[in-house]
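Priority: low. Protein: Right origin-binding protein. Input follows.
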Amino acid sequence: MNTPYEARLMRVLDYVYANLDGDLSLDTLADVAALSRFHFHRVFTGMTGETVAAFTRRVRLFRASMALVQGDDSIERIAGYCGYGNPRSFVRAFQNAYGMTPEAFRKRGVPQPELQFNERGAYEMYDVKLETRADIRLAVIPHIGNYMNVGEAFEMAYTTLATRGFSPQIGQMIGVYLDDPAAVPEAELRSFAGAEIIGHADIVSPLQEVQIQGGKFAILTYQGHYMGLAKAYAYLFGDWLPQSGEVPRDSPPFEVYLNTPQDTAAEDLITLICAPLQ
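Result:
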């Protein structure tokens, strides 16, 4: 069941993502939430486990990290549309979060493992294992559009579950990706962002229930910024699968996140790509 404050927090999350270059002060966000500015921060932190400042800084800098490696906008321009009017303060905040300047981050690009030949002369890039897993019940928020922008849906799903008191029943954070970005226009990409639910819990709007059928899976372990996941998918489906003799099930792949950008450096993020097999 919805809690009285759930809709207020959802408005705040939507507003932050839509206005990264705008006024995200406590007073402004308190107005968005329609809560007293004297109590808003305590409510937000108590319900999400994160201060407003930490949340807005994390979202702004993660958006900046994607802009640095996806495009060629100047650092000053990126700083501006990510909410930093002073480029120096942006550089300082980015370096504190990522351990390097924005210029160094852009020059490095998305780190990728070097191609290595094994003794058989075949490429080895990622660790892939075969595992049998049980059915998984998910509580999710649907997302349409660029998969790199699915973070807002994860924020909404996790916050909704937390405000409903389901934290003890939340398992792994999982994203289900229904379309291939190489075959479907970016604006039409469909995905679900949420978490495994352990035990019984009533999943009601705005959450949706998604069932992942258990069985045999190919599981690839990827480490690094989410921007590099496309290359891991290419390896799994374009190299490993054809050579494995396995046949994929008529079911979409999903990702399991063993940690999150909330408390982990981008290069240390661990993602499991799970492909259902017959």
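Strands lie at 116-117, 123-124, 127-133, 136-144, 170-177, 190-197, 208-212, 215-223, 254-257, 270-277. The radius of gyration is 20 Å.
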